[in-house]
Write a structure and sequence with these properties.
alpha+beta, binds magnesium ion, 7 helices, Transferase(Phosphotransferase), domain 1, 47% helix, binds adenosine-5'-triphosphate, 11 strands, 18% strand, single chain, two-stranded antiparallel sheet
């Protein structure tokens, strides 16, 4: 190997070492606050994502729920990302989630301890977002999943999340209603998925368009609960738009429109 090549490798190693050191120092400063929420394993996952250059910064909390925290972060190109961290301590998971994992052909053998279930749950949200995104349904673009940490496109700007449909007064409610029905149909027919927890709380409005999110419970169309979940989604959406004086499509008809081909 030439001296020049050797020097190049050494320089690269020095830079990597320096970066690791900086990361460690910088990150341990924030560790005190972060530790309140994260266990050591989660901390290590985030550390690895920072080291790998998937993430460049992890900033404030966008939302603190019972089962997950959503953070605003930056990627190395300074682009906003959302980092959803599923809390592995949440015992609630075990009760509610199994029925959506069972019967999903994509997740056949799953360990039943809480940690493994949470990892599967996070993985499931990632896969669902991927299928939806590929089918051109308006959802946050999934970027990376590692254990209980999901990195995705940030919907909003400068750390300010986009408003939920619940908090928006639609300018043209009829049009918005139809756009959402079209998304449900595309999700079903092209991505082969039923959202399963759709309501004004799981739709954001960004650039005047609805963005569907929170898809960990979403199931393939052949799942035993798919029909029940789809009807419930349509009911929720109808209920919301009725309040905005839209003449909604009755659930049975809307259901047919979503599932029937060539309509
Ligand atoms: N990609 C994103 N970009 C911006 N904000 C987001 C993104 N994903 C989620 N959020 C915000 O974080 C909140 C919680 O996200 P999500 O619904 O996926 O998690 P959850 O565990 O179901 O929480 P909750 O129980 O509060 O619904 C959302 O209401 C939304 O305001
Ligand atoms: Mg939610």
């Amino acid at each position: 190997m030439s001296n020049k090549a050797l020097e190049r490798i050494r320089r690269k190693e020095r830079i990597t070492e320096k970066r690791d050191k900086m990361l460690k120092n910088d990150f341990s400063a924030k560790r005190a606050t972060i530790e309140e929420v994260f266990d050591n394993a989660t901390f290590m996952v985030i550390y690895k994502l920072l080291k790998k250059g998937v993430l460049d910064e992890l900033n404030g909390v966008v939302n603190a729920g019972k089962e997950s925290r959503v953070y605003w972060g930056k990627d190395p190109d300074d682009k906003d990302v959302a980092v959803k961290i599923y809390l592995t301590s949440s015992a609630e998971f075990k009760k509610g989630m199994v029925k959506y994992i069972q019967g999903d052909y994509r997740f056949k053998s799953v360990k039943r301890d809480t940690r493994s279930l949470v990892f599967t749950w996070a993985q499931k949200e990632f896969r669902n977002l991927e299928q939806a995104y590929r089918a051109k349904v308006n959802v946050p673009k999934p970027i990376v999943i590692k254990k209980n940490v999901l990195v995705m496109e940030f919907i909003g700007k400068n750390g300010i999340k986009a408003p939920l449909l619940k908090h928006v007064i639609p300018e043209d409610p009829d049009k918005l209603y139809n756009t959402i029905l079209d998304s449900i149909k595309r999700l079903y027919q092209v991505a082969d998925l039923v959202h399963g927890d759709l309501s004004e709380y799981n739709i954001m409005i960004w650039n005047d368009k609805p963005v569907l999110f929170d898809m960990s419970q979403s199931v393939p169309s052949n799942h035993p609960l798919a029909e029940f979940m789809l009807r419930r989604d349509l009911q929720n959406i109808n209920k919301f738009f009725k309040r905005h004086c839209v003449e909604v499509c009755p659930v049975n008809d809307a259901f047919k429109k979503v599932v029937e081909r060539n309509t």
